[in-house]
């Protein structure tokens, strides 16, 4: 029996599975800063193997994972290219400017995908006046575009243009397993078009804490040093890495259920006259309830009445499906909401 977690706010709200709690309890530990926590080492090895990379690094969060990778790729004063609504640019507290002293050059994407010709235009030529462009950051799935899965073909096109100009490529793969499941491709087909990748364990994969970073050994070594600098060097971290191993090895296939549930939810809400604002490819449904005459207070009140957590922002919100929400729960929600809308 899956413990119910009726919370649409994010997939970050997921609770660890009973197996994860058990694994945390029994985890063998050591001092990870000294490199001798066997469970952390195993998680890092598994992450590198699954993604086809040389090395892995366990970090506290997606934000830290992106930060240490961006820092590892760049020097103070470089310019980096990011999609204009990407999480790194939009939602990571300006860390790239504060910690990396980097310039951000944003490119608008089409459903989260930056076209190679637009990337190419944004790359600075060699000129005494210009900062050097050294890194391209891609996000897959793209959160604010609607949980959109970029295809291997799209990723390759961006990778090719970046490599033509000698740029590094970092993938914010917070939800890259959602992308691989939605597209029906091995995750390596996506990760091969990035030098470094950040993968969240604590979103749809349901681990309580952390992300893994993977990439070439030299860049991961640099990232490890930055992790220490940022205060992310953890000691007996096997306790939290053990659930991460289960996340990566046992929780990927079930993401399909989240995607199916998101589609069911979107269909149900759409029939009530609520506008579905995104293409529902993975576990996110972006809605606008103003067409049914509702304001945020109406949405908040209705969802609360039905026993769900969801918060409206300016006439709409994002609904995420995840472990702890099952098909029956979605059906009951749609049914209950339908009665309140009438
Ligand atoms: N996203 C969170 C919020 O920060 C918005 C969410 O609820 O979706 N990359 C992407 C694409 C993300 O969506 C997130 C978190 C992160 C990185 C950062 O991960 P954490 O929260 O672990 O620092």
Describe the structure.
It is a single chain. The chain is globular and about 65 Å long. It is α/β, with parallel strands linked by helices and 342 residues long. Helix 7 (152-164) links the parallel strand 4 and strand 5 (168-172). The protein contains 14 helices and ten strands. It folds into two domains: 18-250, Type I PLP-dependent aspartate aminotransferase-like (Major domain) (Aspartate Aminotransferase, domain 2), CATH 3.40.640.10; 254-341, Aspartate Aminotransferase, domain 1, CATH 3.90.1150.10. Helix content is 42%, strand content 14%. The longest helix has 17 residues, at 255-271. The model has no long low-confidence stretch (mean pLDDT 98). Ligand TLP binds at residues 10, 12, 61-63, 87, 91, 139, 143, 172, 174, 200, 211.
What is the helix tally?
14
Distance between the termini: 33 Å
SSE class: alpha/beta
Largest sheet: number of strands, sense, barrel closure: 7 strands, mixed
Overall radius of gyration: 20 Å
CATH fold descriptor of the largest domain:
Aspartate Aminotransferase, domain 2
Helix percentage range: 40-55%
Shape, principal axes of CA atoms: globular
């Amino acid at each position: 029996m899956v413990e119910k977690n009726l919370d649409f706010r994010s997939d970050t709200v997921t609770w660890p599975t009973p197996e994860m709690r058990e694994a945390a309890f029994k985890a063998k530990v050591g001092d990870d800063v000294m490199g001798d926590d066997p469970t952390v080492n195993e998680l890092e090895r598994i992450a590198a193997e699954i993604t086809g990379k040389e090395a892995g690094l366990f970090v506290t969060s997606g934000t830290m994972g992106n930060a240490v990778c961006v820092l590892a790729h760049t020097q103070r004063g470089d310019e980096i290219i990011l999609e204009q609504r990407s999480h790194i640019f939009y939602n990571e507290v300006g860390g790239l400017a504060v910690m990396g002293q980097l310039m951000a050059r944003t490119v608008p994407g089409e459903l989260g995908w930056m076209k190679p010709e637009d990337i190419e235009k944004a790359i600075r030529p060699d000129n005494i006046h210009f900062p050097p462009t050294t890194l391209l950051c891609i996000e897959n799935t793209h959160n604010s575009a609607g949980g959109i899965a970029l295809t291997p073909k799209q990723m390759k096109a961006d990778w090719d243009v970046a490599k033509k100009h000698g740029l590094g490529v970092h993938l914010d793969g917070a939800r890259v397993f959602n992308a691989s499941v939605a597209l029906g491709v091995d995750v390596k087909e996506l990760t091969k078009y990035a030098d470094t990748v950040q993968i969240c364990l604590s979103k749809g994969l349901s681990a309580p804490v952390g992300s893994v970073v993977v990439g070439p050994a030299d860049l991961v070594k640099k990232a490890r040093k930055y992790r220490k600098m940022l205060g992310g060097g953890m000691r007996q971290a096997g306790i939290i890495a053990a659930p991460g191993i289960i996340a990566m090895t046992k929780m990927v296939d079930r993401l399909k259920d989240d995607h199916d549930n998101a589609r069911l939810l979107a269909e149900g809400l759409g029939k009530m006259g609520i506008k579905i604002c995104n293409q529902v490819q993975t576990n996110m449904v972006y809605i606008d309830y103003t067409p049914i005459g509702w304001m945020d207070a109406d949405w908040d009140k209705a969802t609360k009445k039905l026993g769900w957590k969801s918060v409206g922002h300016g006439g709409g919100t994002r609904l995420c499906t995840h472990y702890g929400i099952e098909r029956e729960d979605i059906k009951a929600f749609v049914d209950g909401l339908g009665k309140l809308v009438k």
